[in-house]
Specification:
single chain, binds S-adenosylmethionine, Rossmann fold, 9 strands, globular
């Protein structure tokens, strides 16, 4: 059977803002892999490629039952988490984005929302919310699930320090929280009071792995 050529999409990643054919003239090297902002599965992701490997081994260490991402943006990292949950059926996933019209739904900018939503439609492990991470609605929903499941929160929205300071105090012993853009958009001084007051520690050796691989991710673990 011959497929319908009209189904091939001409819009996806077509924006002039999306770099194209970057490796056409130059071989891919480790520095390219470590650069933040990538195409992944054809979508846009504000992480480096090593972040994916890092998450795989991080999940293997902790066996979380519930995970939250603040800031879905284009949605490709969200789609990775969604697939992890759909494949393993061992973790529920929520991603939160309050401006989906600026990237999640924008095919020209490599938005993946159209595909993520199909995954969410077929799997109870995969969820998404177009709402403010600082709203009571979001907080109540997450708190409900923290009370039931071993939890991991990934702070990658518009104000990582505020996200950490609001949600780290809600965690139970053994739960974890990580921030992205460590040393870029968020630093120790902004969250030290929460770390001290709520008995969080840098989650080693994963923190060293994340730093060595230049992921800009910094994970913390809640102690007793
Ligand atoms: C750095 S991007 C997320 C990148 C994504 N996690 C990835 O790795 O590809 C941050 C996103 O957070 C969203 N955002 C900022 N403040 C927010 C808020 N208060 N509630 C929900 N989303 C927010 C922005 O619209 C933006 O799309």
């Amino acid at each position: 059977m011959k497929y319908n050529k009209e189904l091939l999409n001409e819009i996806h990643a077509s924006s002039d803002l999306i770099p194209k054919q970057m490796q056409k003239e130059r071989a891919l090297d480790l520095n390219d892999i470590m650069r933040i902002n990538h195409k992944f599965m054809g979508g846009g992701m504000s992480q480096n490629y090593f972040a994916i490997a890092w998450f795989e081994y991080y999940f293997d260490i902790h066996n979380f039952e519930y995970m939250v991402e603040f800031g879905s943006q284009k949605g490709c990292l969200s789609t990775y988490f969604a697939n992890f949950c759909g494949i393993t059926e061992q973790m529920f996933f929520d991603t939160f984005e309050f401006k989906p019209e600026t990237s999640w739904y924008v095919r020209e900018y490599e938005g993946c929302g159209h595909w993520y939503e199909k995954l969410a439609g077929i799997s109870p492990y995969i969820n998404y919310f177009h709402q403010d991470v600082f709203s009571n609605e979001t907080k109540d929903h997450i708190l409900d699930n923290i009370s039931e499941f071993k939890t991991f929160i990934f702070c990658d929205g518009g104000d990582k320090a505020r996200e950490f300071n609001m949600y780290a105090p809600l965690l139970k012993e053994g739960d974890c929280i990580a921030v992205h853009d460590w040393g870029q958009e968020i630093s120790y001084g902004q969250i030290k009071h929460t770390i001290d007051q709520y008995n969080l520690v840098v989650d080693e050796p994963s923190a060293t792995s994340a730093s060595g691989l230049q992921t800009w991710i910094m994970p913390f673990r809640k102690m007793s």
